[in-house]
Each structure stands twice: as structure tokens, then as C-alpha cells.
Amino acid sequence: MEQRNSYSILCFILISFGVALVSAQQQCMNTGTFRLNSLYDANRRLILSSLPSSVMAQDRFFFQGSTGQEPNRVYARAMCIPGSTSDDCSDCIKTASNGLIQSCPNQTRAFAWRGEPTLCHVRYSNTSFSDVSSELNPNNVFNNNVFNNTGDINTNLTEFAAKWENLTAHLIVAASTENSTPSSSSNYYKADAVALTPFQNIYALMQCTPDSSSLTHDCENCLKQNVADYQSCCRQTQGGVIMRASCFFRWDLKPFSKAFGNITVASPPPLLQPGKRFNGIVAILVPIVVVAFIIIIILVLTARRSAVLCWRRKPYEELDFDQSGISTVDSLQFELKTLEAATDKFAMSNKLGQGGFGEVFKGMLPNGTEVAVKRLSKASEQGAPEFKNEVVVVAKLHHRNLVRLLGFCLEGKEKILVFEFVHNKSLDYFLFGQWNNHLNIDCKGIYMMFFSV
């Protein structure tokens, strides 16, 4: 209970006195001390002073080693985030090491996270760095540091909280996933940003030490505890740093540590004023309604056309013309021998003419009716059902200015139409033949011929 109160008092002091996000944070761990100018002190100074060159000798900006013999052996590690330049990394580690010597003069364990000119980490201890679980006690104020700005969030808190939580959850998953280069600062690291407003972004960074164990989820547990510590202390303030000996979390409303140079943040959609929002909705809905209306018209016309075509293509057995007395196609059919007798077997003496679809012969039926027999070309590709269907449709037509179809014949390859015989020849003869020199038929007269009753 006393430790919990101590943690709350620390957060209150940090907020009240406006502890800024300083460029370096040292943590002296009260787990033991040593005498000044002792062998342990000498070994500590030796290994800390060698860290800048040791890290620069590594391609992956991470070094871990030790110097001296037990019980005065000193273990140390140092690292810089990916993308750091050699000069920035060296200066950062050197400054952090000197800060530990000055701030922790006789502590056997300490660590530092420095944020400028890049983010780097330095740690030393009298034991190897193998146990991360001891760092995760939220009430142990000596194993974590909480730093925050004193400014409040000047935006919609609900929207901010949703974006902030989504970003930190994404970073925890990304940073705690081990990659193929375990001995590298790029392992267990992630920096990203999300747009808060058209003019402001949320920037966040998470880093675990590369020696974290993926089997025991050291990095994931450590980062989750950092986020929980910040939320319980300072969640409505602008920016914050939570650091432990094995993991680091920082977020702010401005870039930091040169960690976001290659990160592109997508701008959020602009907020519309009420009037402009209504106009925007209208501008979207009107084209949609117009397009939908046009599509409906096209579908209706297509459906009607399909219905007409389907009606035209019905088999002749389905047609019913009871109003004219033609109920079946059989009543219109002539036998071939009847037509051969009527035309004297299509004698040339009875031939009236020839068109594009066949020859026309004059004939006399047994009942004395004169007919014009049109013998269609045998090369026609029209099938028997289609031929019969068209015969029934044409036979339905009645007009005083049209030649009436009396019937048909369909035997073998023969397709024959039987029309009433017109003594005064056909209309095209009067319109286009030699008789048009004697007749003065204008367009109105032609129209009246076809459409008068």
C-alpha cells in the first residue's frame, strides 16, 4: 500500500512541476552500492567509456559485453535505434554513459534512455541481463520512469483516445515480433504515426532490447506494462515517456529522435461545416440517383424488347388467333400436289415474275379461286417452325391495300406461300414500274393507301 501511494505521489509531482521530456533519463536502481574508487568503480568507468566505439564496431548498432572478474565484473550493453547515423549514435551513447556516472555515483545497477540527437540506450549491472519479469511490477517506482508534458490534449478526447489506443496496440504487436536478426537494434523496434487532425499527428515509438526472449514474451509484456503505466498516470497530457531497463515507450504530437523521417502519414478527411456537409451529401446523392434512374430505364426497355422478341420467337403451336378464325397452322397448309396442279407443275407459261426470295406463278385452285404462288428459294436457311410461325403472323394481317396470304406449303425442301391473285398487279408496279408515268401518287397518297381504314 505504501509503495502504491509512493507511485501516485511521484506521478503527481511530475505533473505538478511540469517535468518535460528531457533529452536524457537516467535511472539509478537501488539494488546495491559500491565504494568509490573501488575495483568495481574502475571497471564500470572502463566499460562505459568504451561503449561508443564498441557499438560503432557493430553493423547493427547493438553491443553487449562485460569486463573484470567476479565479484567486481561489470556487465554493460548499449544500442541505438535503426536509422541512426554513426555520429549521432556515438554522441548519444557517450552522453548517456557520462550521465550515468554522474547521476549514479555508487549504484551497482543503472540504465539510461537518451532521446537526442537519436534514441539510444545504455545499461550496466553487476549481474547478467537475463530476468525481465522483475521489471514489470507497476508499483516498483525504482524500476520505471514516467515523464510527461503538462499540456492538455486540445482536441476531441474520444477521437484522440481511439486513435491513440489503436496506434499503441499496433506498435506493441509490431515491436514485440522477433525478426531474423536477433542481435540487432532493428529487432523489437517500431516507430509509426497516425493523423489526428489535418494539421496534427500522433507520433509513437517502442523499443525493446534485442536480447529479450520471445519464448516468455518479454518484450510484449514489458511494452504493455509501459502503456498501462502511462494510462493510469498521465493519459490526457500531450506526450509521455515510459522507460524500463529492457523496454522504452514514447509518444508525442511532434516528431522526435529523428525516428520518423521515412514515415508517411495519411491526412484525415477534412471536417465539413454543416452547410458544406449538406451540399457535399447532395453532390454525392444526385449523381447516384440520376445514374440509378438511367439504369432502371435501360433495364425496362431491355426487358420490353426481350419480351417482344420472345413473343415473336414463340413456336407456332403456341400462337392463338381465335379472333380471325385462325386457331392452328394446319388450317392454312396446302398440299404440294394441289399447288402443282394449280400451276401446271410450275409451268413457265404461268410464271408471273421472280424476286430475291423466289419465283411467282399464277394458279387456279380446284374451287376456281385464282392465286399467286410464290415458290421460295430452296437455299433459304429458315427452319420449318420459324416458317410456319411467320405464315400465321402474316395471315393475321388484314388491310384493303395489302395482298392477303391464303396459306402455305411445306413439304420436303419446298417452302411455298399462297397469296390471293391481284389482277391489277402489285403496288410496287404502280409506284416504280412503267405505270408511274401515268399516276401522280405523292407521299401523302402512299401514306393513305397503307394507313387509311
TrEMBL record:
Molecular function GO terms recorded: ATP binding; protein serine/threonine kinase activity
Topology class, membrane: Single-pass membrane protein
Record CDD domains: Gnk2-like
GO cellular component: plasma membrane
Keyword Repeat in annotation: yes
Chief place of localization: membrane
Membrane-crossing residue ranges in chain numbering: 280-303
UniProt: ATP binding residues: 374
UniProt entry tagged with the keyword Kinase: yes
Residue ranges constituting the Gnk2-homologous domain according to the UniProt record: 22-129, 141-256
GO process terms (BP): defense response to bacterium
Record localization: Membrane
Residue span, Protein kinase domain: 346-453
Database matches in Pfam families: PK_Tyr_Ser-Thr (PF07714), Stress-antifung (PF01657)
Protein name per the record: Protein kinase domain-containing protein
Organism: Capsella rubella
